[in-house]
Design goal:
The protein is an alpha/beta fold. It has helices at residues 13-26, 47-60, 74-83, 166-175, 182-187, 193-199, 220-226; strands at residues 2-9, 32-40, 65-67, 89-94, 97-99, 116-120, 136-144, 147-155, 162-165, 203-204, 216-218, 229-233, 239-243.
Amino acid sequence: MDLEIVIVSGRRPALLERTLASFEARLFRHFDICRVSANLDAFGGDEADHAACRKILTSAFPDIILHEPQEPGFAAAVQRLWAGTTGSTVFHLEDDWLLDEDVRPADIADLGRGNVAAMPLLSQHIDWTGPSRDLVSRKVRTRLFGMAIRTETRPIFGTSPGFFTGSFVRGAAARMDTRLDPEKQMRGRKKNPALSEFLKPLRCQVLPGRNDRPIIRDIGREWRDERDLEKIVHPDGRTEWRKREAA
């Protein structure tokens, strides 16, 4: 099965190397990799770290399409990579995850069927308890005498490592606002109405591991904690990383 890969990376060579080794061993080798592109942002390290990450990426994928923008920006990186895809099946990856189980083409057989546009790998950060694999949010829109008489169900999409249809990533990229956090604008109706309407009829199905356990692990949190960094989400949807304030 052909698979296109997009990788969002910062200047964190130790994390990037572990991530690529993990996914090569358990996922990439089971697919026919037809195209790879990456965005290497000036975030998380110095010029030497940047050069080390460039070497890691080009060694792993000699024909990689590598973007190295002057200004870092997660939303811009996602939009740039997604808009540039050409394949029918795309795997989105970031530089700070480990994969604990093998993933093969048969595991994503439902992708593209019945409006299933995304299959993220289950992590501890995804709020899912089953039995349905669909990730949805339900909000009460109308109440009568305190009782809900109309609820709205919407799919929950994100940028965690996972599989996407090519039409999804390109359609989302065309509507994405690079000033806003990608996940925030995909999950709220008001922040990006055009993107919200595009996503509404689509489905996102989680891909869990054995016994419905998480299949990937976040190794970036330890890196952030060591540097006292925290993610700040502003009311308008913008995000930034800051040093934690002393207690």
